[in-house]
Amino acid sequence: MDFRIGVIGLQGDVEEHITALGRAFDEFGIEGEARWIRRPPDLEDIDGIVLPGGESTTISKLLTKFGLREALIKMAGEGAPILGTCAGCVLLAKEGDELVEKTGTELLSLMEMGVDRNAFGPQSESFEAPIQIEGVGVYPGVFIRAPLITRVWGDCEVLGSFDGRIVLAREGNLLAASFHPELTGDSRFYRLFFDMF
């Protein structure tokens, strides 16, 4: 297996994802490469995408400004695996909460799920907690100003939960996580993503 994963590098946990992906490639014996993506030409030979955490309104505006919004929607439609974490999870959703609407955050509207943008409180209330992930088991969830997946419908399925609430969902080639797997040092989550290639 040999593939190239692009991490959208406009704002947020970009370097952390690149480091975590590199570690996961090594652990699972995969010939892979993770790269920063800033403009559409950077996507030329990319097989999959990570849309990292950060500030969802800012990222949504920068995706449009740098011409990446339509390119990502096209890649998703063509079956490229896309992982969205925290803010990336929000942007993948088809349905946002009042805060998404109030801030004018333009969602990519790719997954049949709803999100509550700051469901777990402000950054000062960040926490770690074990979450149950299908196919992985108990995983250390890192929640930083995290969104909640409030509901799924259609082909979107729940893969992970914390305290009875949805924190991980998948729809075909799209994977959305409320938490930050790049901050755990535990590569098992990335195996889920790699298995989508």
List the helices and strands and how they pair.
Elements: E1 2-8, H1 14-27, E2 31-37, E3 48-51, H2 56-65, H3 69-77, E4 82-85, H4 87-92, E5 93-95, H5 98-102, E6 111-116, E7 127-133, E8 137-143, E9 148-152, E10 157-162, E11 165-171, E12 174-177, H6 188-194
Parallel strand pairs: 1-2, 1-3, 3-4, 4-12, 5-6
Antiparallel strand pairs: 6-9, 7-8, 7-10, 10-11, 11-12
Walkthrough of the structure:
The protein has 197 residues and is an alpha/beta fold. It has one domain: Class I glutamine amidotransferase (GATase) domain (Rossmann fold), CATH 3.40.50. 26% of the residues lie in helices and 34% in strands. It is built from six helices and twelve strands. The chain has helices at 14-27, 56-65, 69-77, 87-92, 98-102, 188-194, and strands at residues 2-8, 31-37, 48-51, 82-85, 93-95, 111-116, 127-133, 137-143, 148-152, 157-162, 165-171, 174-177. The strands form two sheets. Strands 2-1-3-4-12-11-10-7-8 form a nine-stranded mixed β-sheet, with helices on both faces. The protein has a three-stranded mixed β-sheet with strand order 5-6-9. The longest helix is centred in the N-terminal third of the chain and has 14 residues, at 14-27. It is globular. The model has no long low-confidence stretch (mean pLDDT 92).
Short characterization:
With 197 residues, this protein is α/β, with parallel strands linked by helices.
Biggest sheet descriptor: 9 strands, mixed
Low-confidence stretches: none
Specify the CATH class.
Alpha Beta
State Rg.
Answer: 15 Å
CATH homologous superfamily title: Class I glutamine amidotransferase (GATase) domain
Q: Please, what is the average pLDDT?
A: 92
Q: Which structural class do the helices and strands define?
A: alpha/beta
Biggest β-sheet: strands ordered side by side in the sheet = 2-1-3-4-12-11-10-7-8
- Remind me, CATH topology? Rossmann fold
Number of domains: 1
Number of distinct beta strands: 12
- Strand content is 25-35%
Which oligomerization state do the chains in this entry correspond to?
Answer: single chain
Shape: globular
Q: How many separate helices?
A: 6
Share of helix, binned:
25-40%
How far apart the termini lie comes to 9 Å
